Amino acid sequence: LVNPHHVKKSKELDDNNPTKNDRKDPKVIAGLVREGRYMIPYLPDGVYADLRTASNIRFQLQAELTRIQNRISRWFNIYFPEYKTVYGKPDAKSGMLILKAAPLPEDILTLGIDGVNQIWRDAKLRAVGKARAKTLIEAAEHSIGSKEGTMSARMEIRMLLEDYESKNMRLQEVMVLIEELVKEIPMAEKLLEIKGVGIRTVSGFLAEVGDISRFNNPKELQKLAGLAVVENSSGKHKGKTTISRRGRKRLRYLLFEVAMSLVAKNPEFRELHNYYTTRRLNPLKKMQSLMAIAAKLIRVFYAMLTKGVDYDPKKMISDI
Questions:
Q1: Mean pLDDT in each 10-residue stretch from start to end of the chain (320 residues)?
Q2: Which of 36, 97, 98, 170 is the least crowded, having the fewest Cβ atoms under 10 Å away?
Q3: Domain tally for the chain?
Q4: Looking at the structure, do residues 10 and 80 belong to the same domain, yes or no?
């Protein structure tokens, strides 16, 4: 493959003309290939191919679930805005049971406290009782939600809840497969021993990277994730450094997410974050520190997967 960005940057070298058309592009591409400025695409095989496909399915299902949750939230804003004062999460199990039987405030009032509580008893839910039912009834009594279009509103929330449960079941099925695939990769389960690193991070990392033995050093992984540090300096002018943001966007997103999780839950990485942001020479901003921690995690993952060593918290922060 020839990088389209390279084609765009080099199309003026021969004729000093910004023209772009279907006759000129093949010539530019052929010139890049002749100079060796091409790359051989990596196609994962075996367990890595299965893991990448499963990971892509997981991301798609998660995106669809988020869209459905947003639509459910919109429905509440229109027809029952007080529901959110009773349940912090719109997908609470006890709340979903009530929505199936009595979605609108007037339907809940028809059930009454005993009726609501009976639905929970039939489903054998222990964490809720008459006190929660009373709170729900009071919210329904004082609801300012729309009273128009109730027939369509009941149908809409029923369809949304069915879609949500269907996508959620598929997501759980995919996660079971992902966990089985991760177990087949040597040393992959060792990564889960790092506090703050979960199965979604490990599976996503391995799905994007593939066979880690094809990399000579962790800097190549850092470049693949778009976390390579670049600068724009000339002569006496010293430009600010930043990350390249080129490479696999999903890998960079995963590493950023886990960096935030590590700072919140892992004492060693929290200490590292505090050091980066408060050191006397060249202190980093919080976002810069998170990017540095993501790059640090790449080096930790690379060492554990290639050398077969266990995670050592003391060794991880020894350089500070």
A1: 91 89 92 92 92 95 94 92 84 86 91 87 80 88 91 94 94 96 91 92 94 92 91 82 88 94 94 94 92 94 92 87
A2: 36
A3: 3
A4: no
| Domain assignment of residue 39, yes or no | no
Segments forming the whole domain that contains residue 160: 47-182
- 110 residue type, one letter: T
Q: Is the whole-model pTM more than 0.90?
A: no
On whether both 177 and 195 belong to a single domain, the answer is no
